[in-house]
Design a protein that fits this description.
Shape: globular
Order of helices and strands: HHHEHEHEEEEHHHHHH
Number of domains: 2
Distance between the termini: 54 Å
Radius of gyration: 21 Å
Structural class: alpha+beta
Protein name: Transcriptional regulator
CATH topology of the largest domain: C8orf32 fold
Number of strands: 6
InterPro entries: SirB1_N, TPR-like_helical_dom_sf
Helix content: 55-70%
Strand content: 5-15%
Mean pLDDT: 92
Family: Belongs to the UPF0162 family.
CATH architecture of the largest domain: Roll
CATH class of the largest domain: Alpha Beta
């Protein structure tokens, strides 16, 4: 299933709702702010402009006039995934800035779509003047030659970028990548309560067939907060379901440590 322009935005909204206990979040207020940006963009576009000219205008407004940007010094800050903070600071990650830009493109009926590129989110503009690729890091057009360099950086020298790597994203894959990024960011920053709530929401969405990666990540969070037996149950489930996954080796090692910890606690008590 191909994604629509609001797929990433909708998932970031779901993330905000999942951690709303820690930070106030009002979706109507968020839509109001984005609606104001949409109106400003529409007023800046001349009647009769083609799609390419309108896209050029939107990119100039978004990155130059309004000051949206990626801050490499705080790239992994969870606030870069929290939509109210992104609109307030005008700072985010490529995927979150891309989500906002795609939301505006959807409101303006502009043909911009996400691509599941291996290194980061890349956007694809489909116009009568041709297909153009946009780097949401800075809002500039990126050539196929540069995309080939990034592809080789991810997969090794000589790896060939194909046309299939540049088509509109598959919604399920796009959402899964964003969900994993959110989990990794929260866990890396030690925000265990927020991570647990978000992961629980993901598991509840697929309660009959939970994703093994979500069970694994819940186990990692449970281990961090000292719920060792529950963590062992989750991590054993993951190793059983995904024995060939590269991370299973590390998980097995962690399982042994957790079992030793549980044993020592039992002896102490």
């Amino acid at each position: 299933m191909l994604t629509d322009k609001k797929t990433l935005y909708d998932e970031l909204v779901a993330f905000c709702l999942a951690i709303a206990q820690e930070q106030g979040f009002s979706e109507p207020q968020l839509r109001g702010k984005l609606g104001a940006l949409t109106r400003k963009a529409r007023q800046s576009m001349e009647p009769g402009w083609n799609d390419k000219q309108q896209i050029d205008c939107l990119l100039t407004l978004f990155y130059r006039n309004w000051g949206f940007h990626c801050d490499s010094d705080s790239y992994f800050e969870p606030s870069n995934l929290f939509l109210p903070m992104i609109l307030e600071k005008r700072s985010g990650m490529p995927v979150s800035l891309g989500a906002v830009l795609l939301y505006l493109a959807n409101s303006l009926n502009l043909p911009i779509y996400p691509i599941n590129f291996p290194t980061q989110l890349i956007l694809r503009a489909e116009t009568a003047e041709g297909v153009f690729f946009i780097d949401p890091w800075h809002g500039e057009y990126i050539s196929k030659a540069r995309l080939q360099q990034l592809y080789e950086g991810a997969f090794g020298f000589g790896a060939e970028l194909s046309s299939a790597d540049l088509v509109r994203a598959d919604a399920a894959t796009l959402i899964e990548r964003l969900q994993q990024l959110i989990k990794n960011t929260l866990i890396r920053e030690g925000l265990n309560e927020a991570a647990f709530r978000y992961i629980e929401r993901l598991i509840e969405q697929n309660v009959n067939h939970p994703k093994a990666a979500d069970i694994r990540d819940r186990g990692l969070v449970l281990a961090q907060i000292g719920a060792y037996q529950a963590a062992i149950d989750d991590l054993q489930y993951y190793v059983h379901e995904c024995p060939q996954d590269p991370s299973a080796v590390l998980i097995k090692s962690q399982l042994e440590e957790l079992k030793s910890e549980v044993s020592s606690l039992q002896i102490t008590h």
